[in-house]
Amino acid sequence: MFGSIWGYFYTSFLRYWLKWFIRQVTGKCELQRICAGYKPGAPRTTKAEYSLKNSKSKLLRAAVDVEEDGLEKHLDLVMREKNVKTQRDPTFKVNLKLCLVQITGYRNLFTSVEELRKENFDSDKVQHEEMLLKLWDLLMPEVKLESRVTKQWGDIGFQGDDPKTDFRGMGMLGLTNLVFFSENYTEEARQVLSHANHPKLGYSYAIVGINLTEMAYSLLKSGALKPHFYNTVSGRPQLQHLHQLFCYLVYKFDKFWVEEEPESIMEFNHYREKFHDNIKIQLLDPAVALTMTDSPRSN
């Protein structure tokens, strides 16, 4: 109760006067101090985002939603409003622009991810069918599918004879993630599949992959992935960067599962949540970067 009252008092009253006082002493506005005082990446961009969103200025608040083609013009308006002269602070505009590129890029990434998630797998679409068959060929290069609908799909972790029913929750995002991992980290993907097919510690590889796609999606939607993307992508994050994060989650979850040695697959939800909590804790670190650096082939 006291925490929420203090938070309201600080953001509504105290913060404004504190910023005003520091500006009188330093001669620099809060955004200038952030851009000059924090390292590029999450330490700087998260501070700038907070400052902009909590500004009393409508113009500054609007900066986090500006489109790419209007970015330069909006930056000039921000500098005019904050009375920042390029001659006195030549790096400010460059640094703030990078922050805004990352902030708006994150928003646009979620839009792209949401569109892919809402796209249902359609057997009548050649591209969808080709992608599904490509997944099989990448994971099982020495085994030929007997038919399009077959129990063989269970060998790579699908539940039924036709995988299309398993993509309902995450749509084409789930399949695209699985293919990306198998195509870009083929050796690692086959290794993970071999662990998934272990007689005692096994799990449904494809189903778990779709489940981890949902984890990545929920972390993106909540904003928890901002520090990761701000640290690992210097410009606008793209779909491929979300796919790369998925690769990290699959690879790390497999290691986590094998090390934990669960009694059976029935304990999956428990260990899934434990793994999810571990990831969320890592994402609280301003220096976080969830990359496949400890895999045999890093990106």
UniProtKB/TrEMBL annotation:
Single GO cellular component term: membrane
One Gene Ontology term of the molecular function aspect: GTPase activator activity
Signal sequence bounds: none
Domain ELMO: start-end pairs: 127-283
Source taxon at top rank: Eukaryota
Pfam family, one: ELMO_CED12
Protein name as catalogued: ELMO domain-containing protein
Native species: Oncorhynchus tshawytscha
